[in-house]
C-alpha cells in the first residue's frame, strides 16, 4: 500500500480562489474590504519570513494587510495600548500577535487584550473557552483548523473513529483534539509522559503529530491504513521535515500530509477565511 498524499498546497490554492470571489462580493455589498494587522515585536528572521507570507496571502485575495513592528524594548503597557488601539480601529478586521514574545511581555496579558471578535488566530481565552464548550461564535487557531479542513475536504468520516494527537500545545495539539472531539471522534492526547506511546499511536485511525521533533513518529507507530496529519516543521540538514518519518509512513498509512506542502499552506488560508468571517461578524454586531 502506498499512502495517498493529502496535498495542502493545492487545496490552499483552490481555497484562495474561492476567497477571492467571496472578498469581491463582500466589497461590492459593503464598500470596503476586510483587513488584518500583524504585530511583530522585534526582527526575528523566521518570524519576518512568516509575516511576509501572511501579507502576500492577504494581498492575493484582495484583502488588506498591515504590520506593526515595535522594538523589543516596548513595555507591557505600550504593547497592551497598541492592541487596544487596533481593537478600536474599524479598518482592522483581524489581529495577530506573533509569538513568542520577549520575556518581559506576558503572553497571557497580550492575548487577553485582543478583542475576541478580532482574534482570528484564537488565542484569546474567550475564544479558547468557546472552543472547549463547542458553543457560540469563536475562532479556533488557524493551524489545527487547517488540518481539520484537509480532513473535511477529503471526505474523511470522523464520527466514531479513534484519533490520537501527539502533542498538547495550546496552539495546535489541544485545539486539534477539541476540534476532532466536536466531530464525534474518540480522542486521546499524548505527551512526553505518555506510557508506551507507540502502542497508543497504533490504535489511531487518525494520527496527528504536533510534537516538534523531527521524524519522531516512526513507521512502527502507525496503524496500517491510518490517516496521518503532520503539523511538524523542523529543519534537518537545511531541509524541512515533519514530525513523521514521511517516506516510511507512506508504506503503512492510507493517507498522509507531506512536509512541506501539507498542513503548512493551510494555516494562512484559514487566517484569510477567519478574517473575512470576522468582518462579517463585526458588521452583524453593528446591525
Topology:
Elements (H helix, E strand, L loop, with lengths): L3 E2 L2 H23 L4 E5 L5 H16 L3 E5 L7 H13 L5 E4 L9 H7 L11 H9 L8 H12 L8 E5 L6 H10 L3 E5 L6 H5 L4 E4 L17 E4 L3 E3 L2 E3 L4 H4 L5 E2 L7 H23 L1
Parallel strand pairs: 1-11, 2-3, 2-4, 5-6, 5-7, 7-8, 8-11
Antiparallel strand pairs: 9-10
Helical content class: 40-55%
CATH superfamily of the largest domain: NAD(P)-binding Rossmann-like Domain
Whole-number mean pLDDT: 96
Which outline best applies? globular
Number of strands: 11
Quaternary structure? single chain
Computed CA radius of gyration, to the nearest angstrom: 19 Å
How would you spell out the order of helices and strands? Answer: EHEHEHEHHHEHEHEEEEHEH
State the end-to-end distance: 55 Å
Task: Please report the number of helical segments.
Answer: 10
**What count of structural domains?**
2
Kindly estimate the percentage of residues that lie in beta strands according to DSSP. Answer: 5-15%
Strand order of the largest sheet: 1-11-8-7-5-6
Main beta sheet: 6 strands, parallel
Quickly name the level 1 CATH class of the largest domain.
Alpha Beta
- Assign the structural class, choosing from mainly alpha, mainly beta, alpha/beta, alpha+beta, or little secondary structure: alpha/beta
Give me the CATH fold name of the largest domain. Answer: Rossmann fold
